[in-house]
Amino acid sequence: MKGRHLLLLLSLVLLATPLGQAAVPTDLRFLAPIVGVLTPDVPVRLPLPRQVIAATAPGFADLRLFDDQGLETPYVVYAQSAPPSYTFAFEVLSYSQSEEGDTIVLQRPPDTGPFWELTVQTTARDFHKAARLQASPDRATWVEVTTDALFDFSSHIDVRKTTFAFAETDAPYLRLVLKDVVPPQTDATDATAMQLRYEGLAFAVHGVPAKPFRIDRISGRVGNPHGTDQVYDATAFAQPDTRTDTQGNTLVRLGRVNLPVAQLTLAVDNPYYYRRVELWAADTDQDDAYHQVASGVVYKLPGVASADTTLRVQPTQAPYLRLKILNGDNPPLRLQQVEAAWVRQNLYFIPAVGRRYTLYFGGEQMRTPEYELRRLLPAPPTLLEQYASVSLGDIQPHARYHPRSAQGKVEHTLLTVVVLVLVCGLALWAYRLLKAARRAGT
User: Fold this and answer.
1) Measured distance CA(414)–CA(408) in Å, rounded
2) Per-residue H/E/C for 330-345
3) 3-state class of 134 per DSSP?
4) CB contact set of 258 (below 8 Å; sequence gap of 6+)
5) How far apart are CA 102 and CA 130, in angstroms?
6) CA 132, CA 314: separation in Å to the nearest integer?
7) Angle (CA) 312 316 318, round 5°
8) Distance, CA of 382 to CA of 373 (rounded, Å)
9) For residues 295 and 277, what is the distance between their CA atoms, to the nearest angstrom?
10) Other residues' Cβ atoms within 10 Å of the Cβ of residue 341
């Protein structure tokens, strides 16, 4: 009987031991008030600044919103994007050749809207063409839209560009002029020519033989305006800490970042380059802790107006980041700045009548909240954009911050002891029952 009472008591203790606790403001080390007009029962949008994202765990496990009554307020965080865009094919009205180049007159289909991008679809390789785009309402008067370049150097390096963007236009007619770019001939003793050959880019100086250039299709892009398919926030690392490893590669230390980085743009002072860049991440800033998470190519080619100095990666959030620039036998790049960009994160919540709100963040070992608001407030960009935007006030350390990690450790230890005692008690109880059953059988 005493054993049964003991087991019952331990079971009650187990049930009373909390397996998890709801967060309270004192669990979080930073706070900032929500500033702006709050309309009751209407969702609002709060763009999360860099300081908040960098101080929270991935998935915003340690981010909470409380009203002025101390009540936890549900929220949902969505990345800011725009309505999807789509492409359409231009109708080719005419084609002609002259000293100015190949001239193609295009007509936009009547059922399409304003467009901001043009793509020349071709299977051609090894070309470099200057592109001039003009627009007209009637094919009588033409206005300049943009000038750009199309190129492919794939037999030398993996670089190709057949798309260019411009200010949005709804002109019904376009005139595209393409002309081969012929680099100026340089004397073999010219210092510049020698330097370019040293970099392995002599093809860009002396050009390549002309080849047939067949265009399969010319398409435009309609929808979200250029540059707003994703809205990015960014932070710059000016004159970052660099060093050279034993293989001659440049290691660029960015330090503690902890942001969901999607793009890294390099500001380089060299007149031309073509380098592979790797992104490495780590939980601690120790050499042996880093592991590679992405790689890509940045380039600036001689005689080519367009350059690509951005490394695009899948969003990567790690406490520490660094870049490795593979130099080969080339001298290191003169790196001036690295800009890290991430897709803007917006927090949405529904305010109540007469309440003010404070955002708390930065805790320890907290569980990601699961609010029903994610199901009630869908994520289509056209719907989310209509909600009013509020901002975050000054971020301050929480004076009453008092983490419950120590208390949690005590509770975990107590729970472990209770479970072990219960297991031993149940085993002893089962042994006694089995022994009594044998006696009864005898």
Assistant:
1) 10
2) CCCCCEEEEEEEEECE
3) strand
4) 53, 54, 55, 317, 318, 319
5) 10
6) 34
7) 140
8) 18
9) 6
10) 19
Distances (CA, A) of 218 to 106, 122, 349, 441: 9, 9, 44, 92
Amino acid making up residue 435: K
Distance CA(40)–CA(44), nearest Å, equals 10
CA distance 64 to 77: 12
Contact 149, 304 (CB under 8 A): yes
Q: What would the two tokens of residue 292 be?
A: 């590679």
Pairing type for strands 388-389 and 44-47 reads parallel
Spatial distance between the Cα atoms of 111 and 255, rounded to a whole number of angstroms: 51
Tokens 């800033």 map to which residue? 285
Q: Whole-model pTM?
A: 0.72
DSSP string covering 26-69? GG-SEEEEEES---TTS-EEEEPPHHHHHTS-TTSTTEEEEETT
Q: What average pLDDT score do residues 171-191 get?
A: 74
Residue closest to 277 by CA, chosen among 236, 323, 341, 329: 323
Q: How many residues does the chain have?
A: 442
Could you give all domains of the chain from N- to C-terminal order, each with its CATH number?
22-80+345-397 (no CATH), 86-222 (2.60.120.260), 232-343 (2.60.120.260)
Residue 286 DSSP SS3: coil
- Give the integer Cα–Cα distance in Å for 81 and 225: 12
pLDDT digits (tens, 9 = 90+) for 37-92: 999 999 999 999 999 999 998 889 999 999 999 999 999 999 887 667 889 999 99
Strand partners, 146: 133
Cα three-residue angle 364-367-368, rounded to 5 degrees: 115
Q: What percent of the chain has pLDDT over 70?
A: 80
